Amino acid sequence: MEYAELVKLLEETVKIPIYGVLGKLRNNLIYLATSEGEISIYALVNGKSVKLTKSPIAVTTRPKSNLDFIPFARDVEKGKEIHAVYIANLKGEEFQIESPRVRISSLAYDSKRIVLTGSSQSETSIYVIENGKLSKLTTIPPFSFVTDINEKCIIGSGVLKGNPRSQEFFIINFSGEMQVLTPKEGSVTNAYYLMGNKVYLISDYETLGESYWVYTYDIESKEYKRVEIPIEFKPVEIYYDPEDSLVIAKRDGESRLFDNGKEIKTPRGTISGATRICDEIYFSHSSLVSPYKIYKANREGKTEIVVDNRKVDMGELDYVKLKTDVDVPAWVIKRKVPGSTIIYVHGGPWSEVDNSWDLLIAPLVLAGYNVIAPNYRGSTGYGSRFMLMNIGDPGGGDLRDVVKVRDYAVESGIANKVGIMGYSYGGYMTLLAVGKEASKWDFGIAGAAVADWVEMYDLSDSLFRGFMEILFNGKNIELMRERSPITYASNVKVPLCIIHSQNDTRTPLSPVMRYVQELHKNGKTYEFHVIPNLGHAIYKVEDAIDLLLPALIFLKKLNRG
Amino acid sequence: MEYAELVKLLEETVKIPIYGVLGKLRNNLIYLATSEGEISIYALVNGKSVKLTKSPIAVTTRPKSNLDFIPFARDVEKGKEIHAVYIANLKGEEFQIESPRVRISSLAYDSKRIVLTGSSQSETSIYVIENGKLSKLTTIPPFSFVTDINEKCIIGSGVLKGNPRSQEFFIINFSGEMQVLTPKEGSVTNAYYLMGNKVYLISDYETLGESYWVYTYDIESKEYKRVEIPIEFKPVEIYYDPEDSLVIAKRDGESRLFDNGKEIKTPRGTISGATRICDEIYFSHSSLVSPYKIYKANREGKTEIVVDNRKVDMGELDYVKLKTDVDVPAWVIKRKVPGSTIIYVHGGPWSEVDNSWDLLIAPLVLAGYNVIAPNYRGSTGYGSRFMLMNIGDPGGGDLRDVVKVRDYAVESGIANKVGIMGYSYGGYMTLLAVGKEASKWDFGIAGAAVADWVEMYDLSDSLFRGFMEILFNGKNIELMRERSPITYASNVKVPLCIIHSQNDTRTPLSPVMRYVQELHKNGKTYEFHVIPNLGHAIYKVEDAIDLLLPALIFLKKLNRG
């Protein structure tokens, strides 16, 4: 019954719900959860969880505490990430509203309007929906996102001056006049919260890319001001809610919660969201080894669980930093030493594996594999300098960092077999690693991978062409070719399991099919699984099962001998 | 846990062993079995089963009762069906002997020699292995098979005169002189047993393709003689063992066993082999709804089980004949009426679904689906005229027969949803049906399918080019194109699950990959699963799981809604 037990374990594990506190509507806690098998918006209405959305959602935004509804976007083309806009209210009603047929990458709203960024094949624009009427306000650089609005203007951020190593913020009024602003040229600055004339910013401009802090920009006086937050902790990343004066401060993959400067004691891990309701603070928390829970802290800082979760035994968790030409932080979860070990490479690349529950890592660990998750250069969570190191060099220094972590797994005696696995950019790194560093691995598992940047560029919409022009520091076709796994397909030496969704519009299937045919021509050993009616994003527990089951069976077969 | 239970059921079902009595070595019963998870040769040595082979076997032959060893061939290229020859003896020892690196399609032996037919890209030949020395005796037409030898000659049969609608037999001496013989031009005649000067034949020549009977050909007198066997049953197919004077007589998918004309009572179903040891008769038996067992019958014809098996509840079994321009026999297994129903199309095409345990059908039924298995024109078991009706017309009349059975499933109220599934030629029929008869189906599952006969022809070795030249009545490229599923890929309307082994050398993967890319270009809904290190033949229980699991999960998802 070995497969049957494996599948049971997988099903049980992916059903463990994920929670993320979004904020509040009229003093009701609003949070994201997968409790009923799909990503949905929930409200906690006098202690009871109420599902506000009818089917999986793709994009939402911070709820406005003075309102009783929240907008969200839902995929309406079987995973192709063409979205429609809806609003859900506290009554649990859902209404679709007029919206463009585009990929929606950000949403913001107030009582009068919903604004969004939408990308088509040709352009990325800001759209405004007012009294149910849709209008296109202006086109903007593709890698831009709206974050907040009020009756006067829209704020947001992005790569707005064509410098892939900096981010600026914008203020746009409803006649479409746009100002692009930055406290310092070349800094990474994001505008995220609008309060009266004050635009709240998170920026690295005072620290030369070491860490971020909170600032305000006054729309009238045009002054930048550092927000003084008295916390006894030096974070690398920070989130400040000016309405609740709550701070989530993060360093080395773990975060802490502060209420007016006073720390609220939480378990080790990360806080995925927090909000104040009356004089209680609600926050969602998890770690790599403990599933998400939602807690409530009272005035004295005493916490209790308000939305609980399963207990699981995930084994021993370590955090290491390894030296290449940079420090490479990595999370190490040991189940059996020495044992079959998976170097799990996160996607993004501008993302991180922090100490929070991970839907893809947990089943591997519970199936008995050691997992080591590096935060290679280009990861977030370690300052903008580290994050920007992969600009113009994807699959270069970051791959060296991953290989270093692989060497550590072997030399430290953790691994007797070592493979590489990842999804999206992690799938890209997997295919590149087994081709360019073929002797380093015993197996590879690539989900939603990039096999050929050049073909992908041609197939991409405005947003993802913009993404690639940032990553490759311009439309650098030569570098794209040199950094494409298909260029190295003939070098592959180890069994590969390739899993890809049919309708993926971020990392399209067809270059991966060409890659697989290269493997086939060269007589390589591989599995290839194409999943129907599914795209890049995972909205449902079932989707996660479809993607992970072939991987777990592949691993089982390999480790059977 | 819905998937987990499904996988448990699949694992339990494919582990139900299959038995086939081959004969005897020195009064020890010799039989094929999958009891330990792979197709192996077993001996029953004073009541105990002994496994004689170390890993799965691909081809063997009738054991010689006066000897203590049996030759067999094993795939040595990960499913590519390049075979090596071995012998196994009653001590359970196994020896590899010198053999050509070719696809071996038949074996025969005596105390001095092993002979075989082997196909390379360029030719098919008869090879002789004598005192461990290999020599090529002669090349022969590709679709030929050896069946027996003695000290003077080799006998066998095939399509030897270039007429795809007839089969002749041959006698070859060890200097390579070959006579091609037939009792009647245009008949289907097979030589299968050599006893002194007598060649035993099974031929349709007296019945104009209605049924077969047993004859002898005297090598000295060159006379043909009908073998008089006094049985009170008119079979369509017959097997007669002149050494044991045992008869297995078959009609309408069920067989009966006769000992010197006297019937041995067996349950309904089919007998997959029988032999006499001392004065007891051993035979293997199964039906579509009862797994294989090996029985022993004493002098009085009293039977007892000597190798038992699991009991399973497979539900209600019917046998119907439906009219197109021919009678189309079909087996009907009902689990839930009305219910989701699978039209299971067998491979070959020169094969049948008879009333015997089926590794691919059983899991579908136990998972709760109704299964209807047609014996479309071209199937064996109904006389040579019926079998030869597909010559020059594959995917024509046979497809009409399958569609007729589909209509019956719907009109009779058995099916509320109806899909088509098959492996090999059945996979071909599946892809062709969902393209050419797109409105008839709710889903399709194609394993090891033919997507493009033209490309397949170019990729095939001598044996399979020969097979196609028979099926298409010559190298008829135009007809091959017209009858290829890839020609109709854009018409597909229903979800498809396509499962294919990487190393398949009968129905190669690459045309199927092109077919899948056509589906993708046309935005069809499909799953595609490529299984590594596996070929066309299923040798292991694990292989069956790898092939069937995606199909069962696909069905589960469809029937979930």
UniProtKB/TrEMBL annotation, chains A, B:
Its EC number is 3.4.19.1. The keyword Methyltransferase does not apply. InterPro entries: APH-like_N, Peptidase_S9_cat. Residues 30-295 form the Acylamino-acid-releasing enzyme-like N-terminal domain. Keywords: Hydrolase. It comes from the Archaea. GO terms for biological process: proteolysis. The keyword Cytoplasm does not apply. Residues 362-557 form the Peptidase S9 prolyl oligopeptidase catalytic domain. GO terms for molecular function: omega peptidase activity; serine-type endopeptidase activity. This is Acylamino-acid-releasing enzyme. It comes from Saccharolobus shibatae. The lineage of its organism: Archaea, Thermoproteota, Thermoprotei, Sulfolobales, Sulfolobaceae.
